[in-house]
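Lab meeting minutes (informal)
Scribe: AK
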Amino acid sequence: MAELTRRMASLSDVQGIWGLLRQVAADVPFKLEDEAEQETLLSELMACCTSGLSPVVVDDEKGIVGALLARRDQFEWGFRNSEAIHVAYAAVAPTAREDKVLPALLGELQGRKVPLLASVKSGEQLGLAAALGELGFVHEVKALNGWGDLYQWTPPPSVHN
């Protein structure tokens, strides 16, 4: 089994994450052949890689085998001045799916002790909804347009002595 390491994505990871997203496009899902959808996803990828909030998992050959595209939730930040983080996309290479990559990536964000929101696209095949449920996320909204579902996790209140 390969040695897997977690870290936060940077702008230098755009190409590696894009390659992973293209490899697992049907599971994410997004339409790889649709130029407008590619452009939207690439814009999100750039924003997330510069947010300092997108964890990745790399193998012992420095290849990215798992990623969450996450950044500050714009609604929560703009209207509530909240530090909430929104996970827009998740991707895990087929070779790393048995390694509990999704829980490790999500746990990285939960460790920040801020509210988390996660979008699960209709047709997603990575098991993201199940991983979210196992980590205490609550199903908040089912999108009527078929785009996907929204899950939320709220950190437990901290106890001060």
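Next up, CB showed the second protein from the same session:
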Amino acid sequence: MFATRDRTVAGDLREVRLRRARRLIETQPDRPIGLIAFDCGYTDLSAFGKAFKRRFGLGPSDWRASMGTTPAA
């Protein structure tokens, strides 16, 4: 099924995890990025940041800042 659509299981799983992370970043401004990454199945924060930036064009912290949802001081 995946091969006929030129997709992979790993690619689709990555997409689901990254979209979930993006949603959590946008809706939980006080939650640390590292915990969101962990919640979405990433154990390596660097790998998460690179994957997020590759997919959405901004790193997780920059994405959060662009949404105007920075954590309270």
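CB comment: The chain is about 60% helix and 0% strand.
No objections, moving on.
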